Amino acid sequence: MASESESNGHHHAGDEARAENSGAGCRHGGDDGGGTPRTTPEIRYTKLFINGRFVDAASGKTFETRDPRTGDVIARVAEGDKEDVDLAVKAAREAFDHGEWPRMSGSERGKVMAKYAEVVERHADELAALESLDAGKPLAAAECVGILRYFAGAADKIHGETLKMSRQLQGYTLREPLGVAGLIIPWNFPTMMFFLKVSPALAAGCTIVVKPAEQTPLSALFLAHLSKQAGVPDGVINVVTGFGPTAGAAISSHMDVDVVAFTGSTEVGRLIMEASAKSNLKPVALELGGKSPFIVFDDADLDKAVELAIGGNFFNKGEACVAGSRVFVQEGIYDRFEQKLADTMKSWVVGDPFDPRVNQGPQVDKAQYERVLGYIEQGKAEGATVLTGGNPCGKKGYYIEPTIFTNVKDDMVIAREEIFGPVMCLMKFKTVEEAIERANGTRYGLAAGLVTRDIDVANRMARSIRAGVVWVNCYFAMDRSCPFGGRKMSGFGKDDSMHALDKFLAVKSVVTPVHGSPWF
Length: 520
Fold this sequence. Notes:
disordered N terminus
């Protein structure tokens, strides 16, 4: 990064000689000014959680989880494998087939879930600190309790239908819990993803085996502990930490797992579908990758459009499946947008997520850090122009400057592939028709955003873009009441809203003859 005198007065700390083309500040916690970084949390839970107890892996193996701020080891965590998954599934099966959870009324399950939410809320600061430590996320109050409360309220609202039959029959449907749910969650939002999957599964009456990402295992283990405190019966929630090709594969192919819900890469989603096909044909719900378009029209509020573009790309250091990383700006506003964007990024601060002044923490681990830097070099090699960033940031840890490319063509690798890091592709367009064609010119279909004052343009774009959600004059406008999920190679199935229950429920038809009824 450039020195202070060369970078328009940015605030930096430490040796930034590795970067030369910055538009954002690089600062690590403990440097000059503005508040004291908070202390890191104590690590108390590192074993597998099976049938209400923390236990070592059957093999005795452990693996390291590292602090992305420094690359240092935080703790060693039990490395679960097929044998451990078998034990967890056995516990979940016993809890489903013979335990109280699916036999409780919906209101009773909802009360336990509400208690769980209360316990989690009391530990919100500790959970937030765990995520900052393990995932490099900027420290913030936990908002995930609302998801759990929403589905606690939904537990007694699951019902079937009375059917109007065509002859002398009475018919109705039941919505029954599928059984044991295997939940495989990613590393970018560990606590949120835990509750996005666990909450509807619990409300439906399923029992659960969770496999958190190996990069971020700590919050799931802590949440398992809190579930025990809240009175969730033993065997209902089990957590097996470990690696995807072993523990994750064992869940996906397990003959006694009734459904798998997964959030992660498209490549791994394919493997999970294949494992289901080769085992018991269990239903699968997949929330996969994205390369979402963010489209700014000439009539847009410039300040708002720039604010949304920055948030849509660099929130959570770009580690978001819905990141609006393909930014299309109409030619009449393009030059002003580009200048405003570059100017605004000068105040962006990269650094220790425990520092409240920081906008962007480190990438989750060394592999992801190197992957993102590889894409940045690919963009440079393909002829795209670096407007801001483009370099590593700081002397240690996995920090990357927020990078904006201009002169990007649709067929460039950086415009086609999901980078999952702080990289924006800025492109120009002329007409609504062109915007629609280019927005849909991707194998993904997770999300899209657009900024315009014209309701006719907004309606046309919203109906024309092939994506699971379209945000108009907003971005990342997610809510527990709003269905979220993709199309095309972004997967299928919904998180959030009452639709999220569908993947954990089976519809059963019940038909009986009716004799002597006075009406049909």
